Amino acid sequence: MDTAPATGLTLALAERSAALSYGDLPDDVVQLARQCLLDWFGVTLGGSAEDGPLILLDLLPSADPGDPRSATVVGHGRRLPTLQAALVNGTSSHRLDFDDVNAAFLGHVSVAVAGAVLALAEQRDATGPELVTAFVTGYETACRVALAIGPQPYLRGFHSTGTVGTFGAAAACARLLGLDAERTAVAFGLAASQAAGLKSNLGTMTKSFHAGKACENGLLAALMAERGFSAGTDAIEHSQGFAATAGGVCDREAALGDPPSGWHLRDNLFKYHASCFMTHSMIDGIRGLCASDRIDVRQVSQVTVHVGELELGACAVPEPATGLEVKFSLVHLAAMALLGRGTAVIDDADAADPEVVALRSRVVLAEDGVSGGPTRVDIALHDGTVLHAAHDVSTPESDLAAQQARLRGKFRGLAVPVLGAARADALLEVLCAPGPPAGARQLLALARRPDGGQATVRSVLMRAGTSKGLFFHQADLPAPGPVRDALLKRLMGSPDVLQIDGLGGSRPITSKVAIVAPSDRADADVDYTFAQVDIEGDGIGYGGNCGNISSGVGPFAVDEGLVPAVEGRTRVRIHNTNTGKLIVAEVPVRNGRAEVDGDYTVPGVPGTGAEIVMDWASTIGAKTGRLLPTGSPVDSVTLRDGRVVEVTLCDAGNPVVWVRAADLGRTGSESAEEIDQDSALLDTLREIRGRVTALLLPGADWRRVDDPASPGLPLIGLVAPPADYRTLGGGSAAESEMDLRVRLVFMNRLHESIAGTASISLAAASRVKGSVVASVALNRSADTLLIGHPSGVTPTRVRADTTDEAPYVRFDLLGFSRTARRLMDGTAYYPSAG
């Protein structure tokens, strides 16, 4: 960029702004500007349904759709007068605190500029190159003003996004309006008199309101200047101007000098955690340690985070009470990182998470760090080991293609829940299309909420074994976190005992989800995540896997083209992300599709189907790493009423607690009504589950066994010797046809048959000498366990040899067969945000 003439700073910056053209922009700067707009649309859509923007929308009257002075409200079906649209969109864009930053600016440049320039560009029908040129003008000007006044205003309590950001918005809009240097300087004078924003409001809705006001005020300043409104043209450097009143320094040389990279935009930093950027180095440092050293948080005695003055002034909320406050709490975010909690979306539930709150007390801030450099973290363990990390996320990405790919994923995670997959992808492709950038009207037309208020997502409804659930491509859903969880619950119709407004079937076995994607692992074909959606409550659990739903993953992968179909039988290697274990499915295939017809029977499923053979031998220690997590084949649990009950906790497929039915005064042949209406029994089983969990986690509160993060885990089942009984379908199960009876209780209700993972755990426990299961099972066959459950008798394959080392058993066969069938595929609808 040319050296400015020797005039006042305000006018010098105005001359630079007015002179910039699209032809002056290097290709990489254009690409970076487009990436900033890509990120802006994502975070704005994600924030559009949050409380702050919704309050503004409730207060502001809508504009007539045909009013030429109106503009689109992103993520909604409404239009507002242009200034108010800039206000709302600017507020939405900063609401999640997930937007980009620049170290020179000490804040968020894009959100202070983009909302203003897009509203004006839509009204004036600006071209894509004009939009990009205006955006870059605003971005560069904002950074130069920030360098002129230095960091002191920020340290004193001014929020740069609201104060300096107003100049960026004014510069961008003045450039789009084609104002000359004199009129642009006037716009800066008007912007200076409106610039505001206090850090005392960090952690509240008002922080995002700062970005909205910067957009509105900067746009208003440019429009007033265009109309001939007067203002001083030395508003920055005047003795009573912006620099003097904000901080007392006006460094002309710093403002007008070019950065080492040539353009401030080249130093833009995108965010991948929805918290203050000054917390990101710490988060990534802790995650790196957890990945390399596999830290057990129970062994952590203290975490020390070394921070400087800037971090202490912005991110030291000691006990955050809301999701907004969490974003500015180093101690809370450190605990979240240690526990592996997601940070793509942070809400009030994260602030109240009892595990995070407990661990937070072990995090201390040491005031000996250097702001702007690597954040040092020390994690001390009870055994005296101290782990160290020093991480720095403040270096811009040099590989713009890799950055684009990461931003595309971030965009989809934020946009899909609001617009639906089809509309979000259409906007994404326009934003990223090669060639000249798209104009504002084309972009904003796609950023409106779909007509009718409903969004869509591609899905498949499958019956798999004795369960039924929705199957998704991972790419069609938001990234893991609260946004995705809210979408899945909405699709199922939870929380509601009937799930009447969703696709769930009001039973735990029909309120399940499978999320499938191609795997990067050499030993797996697909990654599969299981989710159990609570029915009456607001929880969703990823703590374990579902064996029945797992049997549908192979057919889904074949039919969706995720694996090559091999005629006759296709072997699908499934990496279950919930447990980290590998499952192998042998899927019958005919004419390139998963076969459905066959003669295999699954008790609890009418008719017959094609047999899918599932190998679960690799799932020993699915959650705890050991077949017998307590180290013993049998444990004694003392209940509140003084009773002592013998149990076996066996972790294969999923961890399951097995109890003799007779020890609780039951037969093992009880019906659903007899168990589901027996509150005393259910309370006892919950207590047993909780107390067994506490054996593994000393100090844990057994009453929290139904944590929403893993409802129903560990599972629990009553076992009894073989006997005749009536099945749920009215038929009979004969003693001679089974090795034992089981009544599995899942999410505090009787399972209508037996969970696939529970049958794996039961079969494994039947071969453990001294276990509760072995004490009642006949084990008629060396390689099969015949399980009598409420719907009939199901075989599970198991073959084991004794060994000399605990648990003194080794399995060379562990699995079962199921059938599965695609019931429906297409588009699922759900109400879009707002």
Automatic annotation (TrEMBL):
Residues 273-426 form the MmgE/PrpD C-terminal domain. The keyword Cell membrane does not apply. Keywords: Isomerase. It comes from the Bacteria. Residues 13-245 form the MmgE/PrpD N-terminal domain. Pfam families: MmgE_PrpD_C, MmgE_PrpD_N, PrpF. PANTHER family: ACONITATE ISOMERASE-RELATED, DUF453 DOMAIN PROTEIN (AFU_ORTHOLOGUE AFUA_6G00360). Belongs to the PrpF family. This is PrpF domain-containing protein. It comes from Streptacidiphilus alkalitolerans.
